[in-house]
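Entry type: protein chain
Record version: 2
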Amino acid sequence: MAGENGDIVKIVALMGMMMVRETKEEALAEPQDGRDYRPPSDFAVLTSVKASRDITDPTKVNWMRVRLVG
C-alpha cells in the first residue's frame, strides 16, 4: 500500500506478517487502543522450526531434506 506521495506505508508479507511505516516515537511508545502485541525479542526464534531429530554435528551435514507440515 502506498501513500499519497508514493512512499510504501504498509506491506503484508508471507506468514501473515505485516510491516507498517511509523515514526520512531510510535514504534517505541507503549501500546495504546488495545494494542497489546509486542514482538518477540528474537525474530529467529519466532520463525524457527523444531527438527524431529537431533543434529548432533551440524558442521558435518552435507545436505538436508526438509518437509514442513502444518
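Comment: The mean pLDDT is 78.
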